[in-house]
Amino acid sequence: MKANPRSLRLAPFTETAIVIRLILAVCVFIGTTSGSRAQKLSQISVSPASVEGGTSSTGTVTLGSPAPTKGIKVLLGSNSPCALVPASVTIPKGAVSGTFGIATRSAANAIKATLKASLGSVSKTATLTVLPITLVGLTFDPASVVGGTSATGVVALSGTAPVRTVVSLSSSSLSATAPTMVIFPAGSSKASFSVTTTSVTKPVTATVSATLGSVTQSATLSINVLDPILDVTSSVAVMGGNSNWAYVSLVAPAGPSGVVVFLTSSDRSASVPPKITIGPGLSRAEFGIVTSVVWKPTTVTVTASADGSSQSTKFVIDPPFQIAVAPEEIVGGNTATGTVTLAGPAPAGGLTFALSTESDGALITAPPSVTIPAGSKSASFSVDSSAPTWDGTNEMIRATNSDGLYSYTYVTLDKELKLTSVVLLPNSVSGGASTCVQVTVNEVAPVGGYVVQLTASAPSLARVPASVTIPAGANSAVATVATASVSSFQSSVITATFGGSTMGTTLWVTKALPGTTYVLLNPDSWGTSRAGAVSAKNQGGYVDAVTNSGNVLVQHAAFWSGTKSSFVDLHPSSWTGSYVAGLSGNLQVGNVYQIQGGGHAALWNGTASSFLDLNPPGSASSSANAISGTTIVGYATFAGGQHAALWAGSASNVIDLNPIYAGPSNATATDGKSTVGYIGAGAIIASSAALWTGQTPDSYVNLSPTGWSASSALGVSGNNQVGWVGNLTWISGFGMPYPEITGPFAARWSGTSGSYVSLDVPGDIFSTAYAISGNVAVGYVQCPGQYGVHAALWLDTASSFIDLMALAGANWANSSANAIYSDSTGIYVAGWCDAGAIVWHIPTSDLPKLLGTQYQKPSSPILP
């Protein structure tokens, strides 16, 4: 009979099977219990044992002996959802304890959570107390208000609210009304509420309290009478013609609408703005008081009024005065004459000024005071001197009026008789024109005078007399220097010799263009101005203006049509400052900005109301630097960096020109086809001149020439580019490296770095070419010594330099040419001089003389 398998499996164990089964059971028992029997769970602990919901605590499990080779796992658990623990913690080999994190949740009431640790059949417990959230603070902003305005209260919890939480509120005063409660949404830790106040006849302090459970937090709110102005202060005295600065202070910070303060002056010699606005949250504002020149001390009262209350300040306008000494440089032991001079006649009784000297070695002395008699404009006094230890010792002398205002000057003491200066007036002329050379010595000439010898290094270019005589009683004399006509820039050193001293100065002579004219554009009643863009009919730039509040000097975008009376203020009122950087036809581009905050690229069409913000979406700041047709270039911030940018008519249609892996960049000019700018820091430090031959980053060409560590391209016309080059060297010293900069020097390119040509004028200090039309470039050169910055024009080389200030024949110390435009009527150059914005015109009739066969007409001139 066949065996039944089922019955076979259920058959009684044989003796051998029983033994085998017992052995296996013992092995399993030993394998599963040997660790827990060898390592006994000692305890579980929590630190800290009490925490606020939302914060964490740390648990620790401890064994009776070190863990085995593979470590040992201890199971964990919690009886509360407010205390969350991991499922287990593993104690590593050889360790007797292990830690684990405990996350907690906020609860409305205190919760005692039991934490359990298990190892084998042994379990241990510990208790963690989870505390509810509490109130930790109540504050007001502002903490002091004028009755009738509002303040904002902020209540803070110790943690995030687990559920919607209600905090009750109360106020101790009927003058401050608070809501009955403030609600915290689940997950929030702060909540705000508004307290409205009523007008009061005397200052009131209201206490507002917030209560949650058994905890109360309080804060006080000061409610002031309807007299917002605390005081008005200013300097006690000012010289007429200068500005005095005054400050209006409020009793409490201004409310959401600000406080309008009206200003008046008791005297027309002191002009104040009609009103200023102190912005929301601010309690103080500054304003300027513009004074006129007065002939006698004048007391002025300035009154500030707001909401029916007023406060005043008084100050004195004093007649302006100045102290001078002649000669300014003398041989020690001789006497100079000091003079205090008024702008007008002294009033009845005269004016007395205290005199003081600052000389460590008592090398000069003066009387204690000098009085200008009534009806006189000046009074003189003697300044005695002693021999100095070395030449060129400077000694100060000061005149102080009765209000403490002062003017000072210096006397320079030398050991022996010598020349002190040789100056050309002016130092740059067009060929065929004359100038003057003034020589000065450090002592007044005796009877018979002093004879000073003169020479010129290029006598055929500059003709000077063999000598000039300083007459008795004087310390200087002037001689005429005649120049010859030139076809290109030349120079000659004019040298003076007197006794054992020799001094020289350099005369610049440029090609004459007698048809050149200029027009000053600075509008009446504005500050200074500058032009940075030009076409045949129009000019763009900025005028200096003063903000209505604070009298901060800012710029207003300016647009002209060839005369100062044509000035149009393009400044949009919602911005602090603005300027025009480029124009094309009827369009102007530039920048608008806030005093604090970034600027935005701007586009206008001849009026302030036509302003269009070109800042690209998502860009923190931007600027439009040039326009040709409808192509606008400048920069914008993309991904946190400054990138050269090209606009095609709108803020959203912007092309990022920054080459891949390049640093910050900027596009400074365009002719509609090509664009120039720089890659790098954008200053003399670490920038490289850049050319984009198309409208993509891939069209970038690096123009930085060999031998120069920094450069920038600022102007482009066809295949010609201009800008500057310079060198930067890091010098070790003063505990850290610092940069030593050489340049900038005007530069020109023709599409490649290898085409670089220097336009730097021999004998200058530095220079820059800002713009180019065809092959005619403009910019500036810094003359040596005291001769200032001069507007410059070049063709292809440095020797083609023409000084536009010399062509103007005006007595300016400084000027610059910033933009150029060419058409059939000639060349227009815009820039600035000491008198403000200016536009030069070189007519067509002068172009052959200027350019000869070198002239390259612009390939696509911007028509007006």
For the largest beta-sheet, the strand count, sense and barrel status come to: 5 strands, mixed
N/C terminus separation: 123 Å
Strand order of the largest sheet: 2-9-8-4-6
Percentage of β-strand residues:
over 45%
- Note the total helix count: 4
At a glance:
It contains four helices and 73 strands. It is mainly β. The strands form 17 sheets. It has a five-stranded mixed beta sheet, with no helix packed on it. A five-stranded mixed beta sheet has the order 11-18-17-13-15, with no helix packed on it. A five-stranded mixed beta sheet has the order 20-27-26-22-24, with no helix packed on it.
Provide the fold topology.
Elements: H1 5-9, H2 15-38, E1 41-47, E2 50-52, E3 56-63, E4 72-78, E5 83-84, E6 88-91, E7 97-104, E8 111-119, E9 122-131, E10 135-141, E11 144-146, E12 150-157, E13 165-171, E14 176-177, E15 181-184, E16 190-197, E17 204-212, E18 215-224, E19 229-234, E20 237-239, E21 243-250, E22 259-265, E23 270-271, E24 275-278, E25 284-291, E26 298-306, E27 309-318, E28 321-326, E29 329-331, E30 335-342, E31 351-358, E32 364-365, E33 369-372, E34 378-385, E35 393-400, E36 406-414, E37 419-425, E38 428-430, E39 434-441, E40 450-456, E41 462-463, E42 467-470, E43 476-483, E44 490-498, E45 501-510, E46 517-520, E47 529-534, E48 539-546, E49 553-560, E50 568-569, E51 577-584, E52 587-593, E53 600-604, E54 612-613, E55 622-628, E56 631-638, E57 641-647, E58 654-656, E59 665-670, E60 675-680, E61 687-692, E62 700-702, E63 710-717, E64 720-733, E65 736-749, E66 757-758, E67 766-773, E68 776-782, E69 789-794, E70 802-803, H3 804-808, E71 815-823, E72 826-833, E73 836-843, H4 847-851
Parallel strand pairs: 2-9, 11-18, 20-27, 29-36, 38-45
Antiparallel strand pairs: 1-3, 3-7, 4-6, 4-8, 5-7, 8-9, 10-12, 12-16, 13-15, 13-17, 14-16, 17-18, 19-21, 21-25, 22-24, 22-26, 23-25, 26-27, 28-30, 30-34, 31-33, 31-35, 32-34, 35-36, 37-39, 39-43, 40-42, 40-44, 41-43, 44-45, 46-73, 47-48, 48-49, 49-50, 51-52, 52-53, 53-54, 55-56, 56-57, 57-58, ...
